[in-house]
Design a protein that fits this description.
7-stranded mixed beta sheet; 37% helix; 215 residues; single chain; alpha/beta; 8 helices
């Protein structure tokens, strides 16, 4: 019952973070405005039919701002980082990282409408120099420039999770990897911390790793 209540009251829990982080309220207002007549489920269904990918890779779910802020703080994101959100959706984590940590932030998303709208919001709030949304497949995107990678694995198929995990070998030592929804078992990923946090679909475990080459 507690989980259901927490999900139902999530919108009220977001208010403190919306006004705590400068310009975040404006991002949320524009997001609400742009998506007023766009149902996420219909939007996803219309676009995914043109993309050769498992339907399970298009499950919708937002990371709440209050949860995102806890994740960024626990991962110790700073101004010198390049934050990369794989499967960025409506871009909440990307905007939050750029605004709260003053870092460069990039979102990679298969659905083109999300990227178009997110880039428009970024321009409207003056984040065009620090935020970028790329329409593409994160299984093929160049990950090597990122210092922090965020993945909400709950919204993908198991095959996609496994294929992405194989790419850990491409990452430089010291790269931080945040995984929500699935523990990542790879010899080069060193577990730093873990937590259980509230998402739009319920409570989920979140793991924090750092790339460290196994001997």
């Amino acid at each position: 019952m507690k989980e259901i209540w927490d999900i139902l009251t999530l919108c009220f829990r977001e208010w403190p973070t919306l006004f705590k982080v400068k310009k975040l309220w404006k991002v949320e207002f524009l997001m609400w405005l742009y998506y007023l007549v766009r149902l996420p489920s219909l939007d996803i269904w219309l676009q995914r039919r043109l993309i050769d990918r498992d339907p399970d890779d298009f499950r919708f779910g937002d990371t709440p701002y209050q949860t995102g802020l806890k994740i960024l703080q626990k991962a110790k994101i700073c101004e010198s980082d390049l934050f990369l959100d794989l499967g960025s959706g409506r871009g909440k984590m990307v905007f939050l990282a750029a605004l709260s940590c003053n870092c460069q932030a990039v979102g990679v998303e298969l659905l083109p409408s999300y990227n178009i709208l997110c880039n428009r919001i970024a321009k409207n709030v003056g984040l065009g120099d620090r935020v970028q949304f790329v329409n593409g497949d994160f299984l093929e995107y160049d990950l090597t420039g990122a210092t922090v990678i965020f993945t909400a694995c709950t919204t993908w198929s198991q095959l996609t999770r496994d294929l992405l995990l194989d790419r850990v070998e491409e990452l430089p030592e010291g790269t931080r990897w945040i995984s929500a929804g699935q523990e990542q078992r790879h010899p080069d990923l060193n577990l730093v911390a873990a937590d259980t946090l509230l998402f739009s679909w319920g409570y989920e475990d979140v793991w924090f790793y750092e790339v460290k080459r196994s001997k």
